[in-house]
Write a structure and sequence with these properties.
alpha+beta, seven-stranded antiparallel sheet, two-stranded antiparallel ribbon
Length: 275
Amino acid sequence: MSLAEGENDMDFLRGIFEKISAKRQYAKDKKQFFEDLITAAEIGRLTDDEIQQIQKRYQELGLTQDDLKGVRAQAYEAALGAAKSDGVLTAEEAAKLAKLERILMIPESEIAKAKKELTRLQLLTDIQNGNPPTVAVPNVILQKGEVAYWSEPASLLEERVVRRRYEGGSQGFSFRIAKGVYYRVGGHRGHIVTDTAVVAVSAGELIITNKRVIFRGNTKAFNIRIDNLLELNFYNNGVRLTDNNGKLRIVKFDDEANSDVVAAILTYAINHFGG
């Protein structure tokens, strides 16, 4: 082998090693970019400058949509989690989320669940800021000046007897005290035991207005004036209401997703119109 041939071989090998090294460095840089992106999103540190740096680095690395698949949705969800940590979504936070979605070109299908949560968070923020939603409630006659804020599919629950059973009772035992004469002891009668349970008695919707809480069901209904509510207990799947006469109503929501929205609207109505 001549010296020239040997140098050519070395150049060839050097070129291969450089390509391998470049690929490794690219993979390392790409991984670091993803890690930095997720970390910044998780701690809510996505300032305008950082978002611009993300866009710049994204372009420098020549990343494609396939490179970002999965990671971009994770980054968006992390940023949303940081934004909602205090239970309020500011206009600035909403704008940054929209900008992040646009820069990373995140398809709606990848963050559908997160966007639904974003809408819920925006709604809660509006309510806390004194801007509750309004809804149309067909076939409900509203009073003068009454505004319907929310309608939630729900069921009315009541305590009902679900079973009656006979319990106890014994014939006791007898012993002979003389020929043909027996004495019985220990006998006692049983008693009826009634088992009760809280069960659904009517399916319908819970409507909240600025004046009343209305339940409109297929078999039962009620309405309570906001200023007649004595006690409220909120649960993750329903609400228990007690009026000023001590009458209790238990309402279970068909879906737990809006339980905090219902609680926020009821709280708003009581604070502003409860008298």
